[in-house]
Amino acid sequence: MIVINWIITAFLVISSLLLHEWAHVFAIRYFGGKVKEVKPFPLGFMAQVSGLEHFAAWERYVTYGAGVLINALIATWTLTASRVSYVGIGWMEQLAFYNIILCIFNLTPVLPLDGGRILQQFIANRLGVLRANRIMIIMGKIVGIIFIILGMVQITFFNYNITLLCAGLLIMHKNKGLAPHLQTAFYRAIEAKYTPQRERLMPHKTIIVPSTATLKYALERIPLDYIVEFLPDGDKTKAFSERALLTHIFTNGLGGTVDDIYNTPGLMVL
Q1: Which of 3, 104, 251, 269 is the most buried (most CB within 10 A)?
Q2: Do residues 117 and 143 both lie within one domain?
Q3: In-domain check, residue 268
Q4: 191, 219, 252: which is the final residue of a domain?
Q5: What confidence tens digit (pLDDT) does each residue in 45-77 have?
Q6: Are 77 and 56 in contact (CB under 8 A)?
Q7: Is 197 among the domain residues?
Q8: pLDDT tens-digit series, residues 118-158
Q9: Contact 222/128 with Cβ under 8 angstroms?
Q10: 3-state secondary structure of 207
Q11: Are residues 58 and 5 in the same domain?
């Protein structure tokens, strides 16, 4: 009987994880992205994808939230169906419980979880992509430590369950090597901004920066889904485009200040 219960539990959990990932895959393909493969991951399954940098902001939000949404729908349906039966249906109650846990866990605001991706995009469009990346890495370390501490408490008082401890260790491990991947994703996203179709539809945003600020300071404030016009000290006569900043950096490096862009002969300003 115990073996049968374990088999049922494993089937319900794996089914929930697969449906969660299937929702992501469906959304990615629907919006024109590509899914290379779906492979097992210590916390479930993970799809290897490409093309998300070409999505509109709302399409990315839908894609990141699709897995949690399908888990919430499954939990709502199974719990409602079980309660309507007046006697409760064991496997439905179990399935609802596992999907509620998946919703809560995946909304944890750390990478590589869905909640972390949603929060990263939100911060990136308000503070800049590179600053958002730095914040997410710090948050990952903090949440990882909290999970490890809670995991130790869980092991001590709740039948040696190691779920939270493993989750905390995995989050710490993933965030440790995340910086280079996020840097690469940043440059891919910037490149994708200037494809003819996206550039035409991309909203514009004005950012005031000190004229003595470093180029790195300005670069870190480039958002994910806006094309930026920089105003040194708020002076419109010295305004320069995001493209001008990037051109200057790729040509001359990060050394120098914002004033250097305006004073560079032949460089496009506004």
Answers
A1: 269
A2: yes
A3: no
A4: 191
A5: 777 888 888 888 899 999 999 999 999 999 888
A6: no
A7: no
A8: 999 999 999 999 999 999 999 999 998 998 888 888 788 77
A9: yes
A10: strand
A11: yes
From the CB of residue 236, how many other CB atoms can be counted at a distance below 10 Å?
10
Q: Does residue 12 sit in the same domain as residue 82?
A: yes
Could you give the CA distance from residue 70 to residue 11 in angstroms, rounded to a whole number?
17
The one-letter amino acid at 193 = K
Range of the domain at 224: 203-262
Long-range contacts of 228-232 (CB under 8 A, 24+ apart): 228/204, 229/204, 229/205, 229/270, 230/206, 230/258, 231/206, 231/207, 232/208, 232/258, 232/259, 232/262
User: Residue 263: its pLDDT value, please?
Assistant: 67
Give the residue from 107, 137, 153 where a domain finishes: 107
Q: What is the pTM of this model?
A: 0.85
- Overall domain count for the chain: 3
Residue 2 above 80 pLDDT? Answer: no
**Are 172 and 145 contacting, i.e. CB atoms less than 8 angstroms apart?**
yes
| Distance separating the N- and C-terminal Cα atoms of the chain | 74
